[in-house]
Structures are given as C-alpha cells and as structure tokens.
Amino acid sequence: MQLNLTPFEGFTADYVFGVDSYTQLGTAFIPPGNTTPDYATGFARRADRTVFQYNNDVTLGYRRNFTEWLESTTSVGATWQYDQVQSTSLTAQQLGIGGQTINNGVSVASENRTERRIEGYFAQQTFGLGQRLYLTGAVRVDAASPFYDRLNDDANWQTYYKGSASYLLSEEGFWKNGALTNYVPTLKLRASYGQSGNLTAIGAYDKQTNYVPSSVGGLLGVFRPGQLGDPRLGPERQEEIELGFDAGFLGGRLGLEATYYNKKINDLLLNRTFEPSTGFLTGLQNVGTMTNKGVEVLLRAVPLQKEKVVWNVTATYTRNRNEVNGIEGNGILPFAGGFGQVAAVNGEPVGVFYSTYYARNPDGSLLLTPTGFPQRELGVNGVPQRTPEGQPRGSVLSKVIGDPNPDYLASLINEVTVAGKLSFRLQFDAVQGFDVFNFTRRVGERDLYGGLAGYEPELRGEVPKGTSAVLFGIFEEYIEDGSYVKLREASVSYTLTPKFLGLQNIRASLTGRNLLVFTDYSGYDPEVNAAGQSTVVRNFDFVEVPIPRTLTLGLSATF
C-alpha cells in the first residue's frame, strides 16, 4: 500500500506499507544401503519454514527555489520493520525398507521461532547552487533487536553520516561557449563520503548462547548449543569514499560513467571455529578489518538511431580488490560452513581457500613418494622441511590454495527496438579470474565412491592403485578456475495497440535466462555455492544444483 500527498506546493508526504507471508516446505530421502558413510542406514527429512514480515516507511520532503541560483531540498523519514520466522524440522535415520516418511525410522524433531525488529530515522539536506553545484549532507540513526543491549541503551543506537558533492562543469560559460562542448557536451564531477552499518548480519538471537530444551526418557532439561554467544557483539561499521565522473559525447549518443571507491569495514562480524576443548564449536565475534578498493565503469551507446529502428548498447566493468587484516593470533581465522577449508587470512582477500597442498620439487614438479604417489607438503612453522632422502618431514602444512574473489566482472547488453513495437534484448555476463573448490569431484573421484570419470584412470591401471585415496587429502587438487561467460538473458517482445474493450496495448514476450555458459570448469555450474548466500564462504561446490535454465512466456494488457 502506498500513499502520496502534496498538501501544498513543494511539500510531499509519502507512506509505504508492505506485508509479506509465505511458507517453504522441503523434503529429503536417502534409501538404506547407500554408500554414504554417515547415512548408510537411510535418511529422511521434512522441514518447513513460515515467514511473516511487514515494513512501514514514511518520508517527508520539501523543495524550494529561494532564488534563481539557490535551491533547497529537505527530506526526513523513518522506517519500522518486523519479521517473524517459525521453522520445524523432522529427521529420521535407521529407516525400514519401503518407506520414505519420518515415521519409518528413528526420528528427531526440532523447532525454532524468532522475531526481529529494526527501526531507523534520517534527515537529509541538499543545496543546489547555480544549477551546477549540488551539496548534500545527511545523518541516519538505526537500531536492531539482534544487537539489543539491555544494560546500555546508548549502545543500541548507531549513528551514520553522509556527505556528497557534484559539479556540472559543462554548465560553466568557458565550457558551453568553447570548443570543448563540441566533443564533451556534458560532464559532471562527483565525490561522496558515507558511513553505514550491517544490522542484519546476525540472527535474531545470535548474541546470546541459546541453550536448547530437550526431553530424555520423560525428563525435561536443556543441552548446550554448538554456538557460543557474545553479549559484546556490535554491528559492523563501514566508511566509504567515492570519486567519479559522468560524461556525454556525440550529442548524448555515447555516455561514460566511472567511479573509484575505497571502503573500510571495522569490527568485522565473523563466525569463527573454536577448539572442542572450549565446549563450543563456533561463535560470532567482531574481528579485524576489511578494505575494498576498486573501479566501476559504465558505457552507454546508441550505435543506430533511425526513425523506426533504435539500437542501444550498455557495457559495465567492475574490478574490486579486497583485503582482510587485524586477525589476532596466527592471523588465520577458519570459517564455519566451509568444511574447515575457508578462512580469513591477514593480508589476503576474505574467504580464501586455505588448506593442504602438493609437495613439489624446486622446479615445480610434483615430489612423489618412493612408491610413486603424490603427497602433501610437510614442515615446521609453515616452512617445508626435507629428510636427507629429499622427502617431506614434519607436520602437515596449509596455505592459501585458491581465491573465490574474481579479477573482474563485466556485462554487455544489446537492445533493439523496431517501429516502437518489436523489441529484442540480449545480455551476456562475464566473471573472470576466480577459483571454485570442487568438493563434488573430491568425493566422486575417491575409490570409496567412484562415481565420477576422474576415478577411471585408477580403474584402468593408468595410475597406481590408491592414487584417489592419496589425492583425497591434498585439497589443492580440487581447486579449479571458475571463469565463465554466460548468456544471461535473451528476450523478444511485441506490443499491439488494439482499439476494442478499452485496451491501450497488449504485450507478448518470450524470455530465456541462463541459456548458455562458456567455461572450463569441470562441474555443472561455477556459479553455485554450498553455503548459500554467505558472504565469506563462496564458490564451494558440493553436489550443488546448477542455476536453472528457464523459458518464460508472458502476456500483459494495459487498459
């Protein structure tokens, strides 16, 4: 629901209310007698998740031109959000023959209910000077229930500041009246500074240690969870500086936008892994800092502009360099959810693959065992060591073996409109220079499973028997280049303008998404992740379902 009011000239009042409710249901079944080590007796599961959420947004604005050279825009507003989640899970193992339901085995039930509230208030002021220089300042105050501190109310509110400036240099007389306007008719310079936070980075009750109620033999009690809470947790804080320009060429048929940014995040919220002796497995902590520096470029062009045919081209390029620092101890923080192979490492991008690697000779070739097998590198304090015979000695070493962060992202969009009725659209996306941890191949090529083609050389005797078992512990083997180019979308649409039943137009469209992929990655799809939407555990492929190829036929009418 949206309400827009203009009680008097220059003043606006906008109110938006949204509500959403949905239920998700999932089932799983692994029959008894399978080859998995953990579920050989069978596995069945049914889980549902019901979500209810609403949001209220109020914005008041006032705009006034005081003189020909001074204009003012003032905005104040507030937002209130609420969400409630209820989830239930029923799991069974040791299944009987012939049934796939939960009551066919030894079952365990669990339930979880959460509520979360977020509210924020802001004020923003913009002044325009001479229709070319624009200055903006803003302040925002936010609070979220996951970070609530009952002992210190001042800590519940986070304050963020923002400032920006833009300058239409092409509006100056020397530019408009000179030769420059023939080549670059429009040029805007811009700069900004802003602060922000991440109030949804943790679950509703992750700040607490949540003991789990249980009933054993009719006796009620609680047991200790795997995740340790921390009442000192606070939201991450980000500061960002941006510099850029927007330029137009050839009478507006060519446009270029370029931005440089530098972001620094303090008090990173990371889920770290604990030693079992602590009594807990994981826990969220404010640890270290992270910087992101990069450039974003957007190019728009109209190569063809005729009375009945228009061809638009949009190209984008993004390059980001990320670095984590401030991790205490040995400077390495393994993440939960990455099978112990993903970590934050000082001086490296976030979420690098940090694990075992091949022992090699000085020339880079594999250092084989006396029986001809490849082997893991061994050493002391991170430094490889050798026996008098030239073989590795010491404890197993780990290092950064892969980086899920891409070198760059790019896209190319072509849009053609014929006679204002027939439209074509083609979009290619490219992500280059990133690694994928192919955990699926690691499991499928092991002799215990042997379901993938990578195990065939051992079956044919082309490599020594037991090679797959040796490689299973050398994680470097399963790091692959995931670079790809995808035909992300192709569509065609046609618009009719009938003169009956009060119709203004009818639009029919056919759209295909993820139609083609060009990649050297050996798995189904390099654009997958076993950790879902995690921002730190990424590009981890463990029997993941590839992004679907879809075709959509649409029909819409306007009256």
Describe the 3D structure:
The chain has helices at about 175, 180-185, 440-445, 455-460, 465-470; strands at about 1-5, 10-30, 45-65, 70-95, 105-130, 135-145, 160-170, 185-195, 210-215, 220-225, 225-230, 235-250, 255-265, 270-275, 280-285, 290-305, 310-325, 330-335, 340-345, 350-355, 380, 385, 390-395, 395, 400, 410-420, 420-430, 435-440, 480, 485-495, 505-520, 540, 550-559. The two termini are about 20 Å apart. It is mainly beta. It is built from 5 helices and 33 strands. The strands form 6 sheets. It has a 17-stranded antiparallel β-sheet. It has a 4-stranded antiparallel β-sheet with strand order 18-19-20-25, with no helix packed on it. The relative contact order is 0.06. The radius of gyration is 29 Å and the shape is globular.
| Average pLDDT | 90
List low-pLDDT spans.
none
- What is the β-strand count? 33
Briefly note the structural class of the backbone. Answer: mainly beta
In short:
It is built from five helices and 33 strands.
Helix and strand arrangement:
Layout (H helix, E strand, L loop, with lengths): L1 E4 L5 E20 L12 E23 L4 E24 L12 E24 L3 E12 L13 E11 L4 H4 L3 H4 L2 E12 L14 E5 L2 E5 L3 E2 L8 E13 L4 E13 L2 E5 L8 E5 L2 E17 L3 E17 L6 E3 L7 E4 L6 E5 L21 E3 L2 E4 L5 E2 L1 E2 L1 E5 L5 E11 L3 E11 L2 E4 H6 L11 H4 L7 H5 L7 E3 L2 E13 L8 E15 L20 E2 L8 E9 L1
Can you tag this structure with a few keywords?
559 residues; mainly beta; 17-stranded antiparallel beta sheet; four-stranded antiparallel beta sheet; 4% helix; 55% strand; globular
